[in-house]
Amino acid sequence: xSPTLSYVDSTIVLSIALLIVATMTGIGYRFFQGRGHSxxxxxxxxxxxxxxxxxxxxxxKFGKEATVVLFSTEYCGQCPAVRRSxxxxxxxxGGLLFIEADITHRIDLAAHFNISQTPTVxxxxxxxxxxxxxxxxxxxxxIETELEKLGVK
Amino acid sequence: xxxxxxxxxxGPRFGAAITSVLSFIAFYLSxxxxxxxxxxxxxxxxxxxxxxxxPSTHPYGWSFAKFIRPNLAxxxxxxxxxxxxxxxxxxLAFALLGIIGGIFxxxxxxxxxxxxxxxxxxxxxxGLCLGCQLYLLIRRVGIxx
Lengths: 153, 145
Prior knowledge:
The structure holds two protein chains of two kinds.
Chain A: H1 3-32, E1 37-38, H2 47-50, E2 53-54, E3 57-58, E4 66-72, H3 79-92, E5 96-102, H4 107-112, E6 120-124, E7 130-135, H5 142-149
Parallel strand pairs in A: 4-5
Antiparallel strand pairs in A: 1-7, 2-3, 4-6, 6-7
Chain B: H1 10-30, H2 34-53, H3 59-68, H4 81-104, H5 107-126, H6 130-141
Helix pairs in contact in B: 1-2, 1-3, 1-5, 2-4, 2-5, 4-5, 4-6
């Protein structure tokens, strides 16, 4: 094999490697994002510190059966779709409260809850303890399954 | 913020598909014909800047509106343009790495083209906006405010 030819070969190999890396990253992202995991321990959300408004009123109480918190930013492309689906869920389920925290200007909260991407969704029990967290757009039914465990019908 | 500013999300993804092809060619050429690769990276930098300065006159948006959108159904939902703008800024940052870094060190053109390709490819074909994903992390380490 001439040296020129092997040089061309290595550029092709590198180009294909780049394609493969990008594709695997995409497949991995699609597979892992939005699956979520249970949270042990009892990290609590303190509503006074979040200072959230819902329909113009400050949120002071958790949902009777469960609370779903959506962390979003102004730059989050997928958050509006997640917001809509969670609002629908809240409407359908009794005892469920849905709140959204825009953390664009509250980066301290991202550090506190170790949030590295938006959307991030927390499922809280009636005491406000985080039971489940999902990074990315939640997969269909994931949140509903978790809510059923908390007794939301 | 009015809904009038919102955009059909398929438009930027169409643009990202073109960007991914261009940057892939740039990556390939940067290993063989460096001056041509450098020219493509400059062109990408111009395109990113254009979309930040005047998105409505951008050739991607224009060709999407003219040739692609008439053949598609109405969009299911519209998207806030701010995340897209941030993504373009990230793209521009990588292009500048290639343009400025390329003067001093040729491999930086390859690195720049590879990053732009990965970001644009993931956006176009997997709907993953890398810039938007990294936004919080970048904020948390304090590079941007």
